[in-house]
Each structure stands twice: as C-alpha cells, then as structure tokens.
Amino acid sequence: MPRNKTDNFLKAIKRYAKQQKNAMQGEVEQLKSERLKEAEAQARAESDRIIKDELSRYQTQHTALLAAKTQEGQKKLFLARSEMVEEVFALAAERLTAYTATDAYQEKLRESARQMAALFGEKPCVLSVNSRDVAAAEQLKDYFGGGAEIRADKTIAIGGVRGYCAEMGIIADETFDAKLEAQREWFIENAALSVL
After folding, report:
1. Considering the entire predicted model, what is its pTM?
2. Disulfide-capable partner of 130 in 13, 156, 162, 172 (CB 3.0 to 4.6 Å)?
3. Residue 146 pLDDT more than 60?
4. Can you tell me whether residue 191 is helix, strand or coil?
5. Under CATH, which number does the domain 102-190 receive?
6. Which residue from 117, 172, 108, 107 is spatially nearest to 144, judged by alpha carbons?
7. Shortest CA distance to 193 belongs to which of 118, 62, 83, 43?
C-alpha cells in the first residue's frame, strides 16, 4: 500500500502541477494578450500622431506654396494693370498734345487766363506754359491788371497754363498735365482693372 499511497501522492502532485501549469499558461496568454493590445494601441497612437504631423507639414508646405503662387499672380496682374494704365495715359497725353495745335486750344488758354485773372485780381503773377506756347501766352498778359510774367516751364509737357501769385500765395494749375494726372486715380478705381 505504501506504493499506492506514493502513486496517489505523485498523481496528486502531477495533477496539481498540471493545474498550476494550465493556470500559468492562461495568465501568460492573458498577459501576452494585454501587452499585445497595449502595443497595438501605442502603435496606433504613434501612427496617428505621425500621420497628423505629416499631414500638417504637407498642408503647411502647400499653403505656403499656394500663397507664393497667389502673390506671384497678383504681382503679374498688378504689373499688367500698371502697364495698361500707362499705355492709356500715354495715348491720352499724345492726343492732348495733338489738341494743343488747334484753335480750340488757343481759346482754352485764353479762358484759363481769364479765370486766373479774376482769381488774382490786381496782383502781379507769373504764368508758366510749355515752351511752344510762350508766343501765344504773351497775349494772355492783357487779362491781368496787376501784370503777368510769362515763363517757359519744362514740367508742362502737354500744355495749358499755370499761374502763381506770390502776394496771395496761390497757384492756379490749369495745365493738361495736372488735369490728366488727377484723372489717374479715378481711372484706376473705375476702369475695372482691379487686382483680386
């Protein structure tokens, strides 16, 4: 019987060892499963972070590229618009210069002189004109009771007359150059040549 007891004892130990082994294997499997889930969650979080970082970098890079392209396009439009404005005003200056060879222009000079004479009254003044208008401007002196000195002015490229009364501190500019330049801002605002 002692043998039977020993066998039973050994069987009990084996059974207990087997139960412990199974329990440990279950714990190991559970631990492996938990660690695997943790590793997957970490990997997922890390890959999400990397994807977000890359997407953010990509968006920033493309936003900067788009901004540069937009700015380049606006610059080209601005230059083209400026060129068109200059062409329009050069053509207008050319036509106004051609107008200065007409009798209507001579009447316009006289009308401008009459208005200036009314403004300056009996005060002496200086009348500035384009060099080609000096001879015609000599007749304008008659309108000025306080006397008028006629001067050729290189800044008057197109035509017209500019009067200056030192005693009153007044300049009356009836030159086509000044009037044309005054139209530039209006033209830019109203000619539908805006840069978007």
Report:
1. 0.62
2. 156
3. yes
4. coil
5. 3.30.2320.30
6. 117
7. 83
Q: How far apart are CA 127 and CA 137, in angstroms?
A: 8
Query: DSSP letter at 160?
Result: E
For residue range 9-50, list pLDDT tens digits in order: 878 888 888 888 888 888 888 888 888 888 888 888 888 888
Among residues 21, 17, 18, the alpha carbon closest in space to that of 29 is found at: 21
Q: Which two tokens stand for residue 20?
A: 């412990």
Q: Say which amino acid occupies 114.
A: R
pLDDT tens sequence across 81-127: 888 888 888 899 999 999 999 999 999 999 999 999 999 999 999 99
User: Is residue 1 pLDDT above 60, yes or no?
Assistant: no
Tell me the DSSP string of 27-88.
HHHHHHHHHHHHHHHHHHHHHHHHHHHHHHHHHHHHHHHHHHHHHHHHHHHHHHHHHHHHHH
> Is 25 in contact with 17 (CB distance < 8 Å)?
no
Please state the length of the chain.
196
In this structure, which amino acid lies at residue 27?
A: E
